[in-house]
């Protein structure tokens, strides 16, 4: 059983440095982190009085909401493909 190579990448998210360890490529890790940073800055621009903890939670809620919408759309498309094949 082989273990996947783990990459260690230092990134900056909303002015804080984090070391991320994962099996994704360094460029993928950096890309994901830049999207998190962008979303935090976007939310902060609309709610400048939020502290960092609340901002992080709202960012996570937004990300999960987007993920669930995409998952629902994916499942809908899978059902449509299955229907068209039958």
UniProtKB/TrEMBL annotation:
Its main location: cytoplasm. Keywords: Cell cycle, Cell division, Cytoplasm, Septation. The keyword Transferase does not apply. It is found in: Cytoplasm. GO terms for cellular component: cell division site; cell septum; cytosol. It comes from the Bacteria. One of its GO terms (biological process) is FtsZ-dependent cytokinesis. Homodimer. Interacts with FtsZ. PANTHER family: CELL DIVISION PROTEIN ZAPA. Activator of cell division through the inhibition of FtsZ GTPase activity, therefore promoting FtsZ assembly into bundles of protofilaments necessary for the formation of the division Z ring. It is recruited early at mid-cell but it is not essential for cell division. This is Cell division protein ZapA. It comes from Rossellomorea vietnamensis. The gene is zapA.
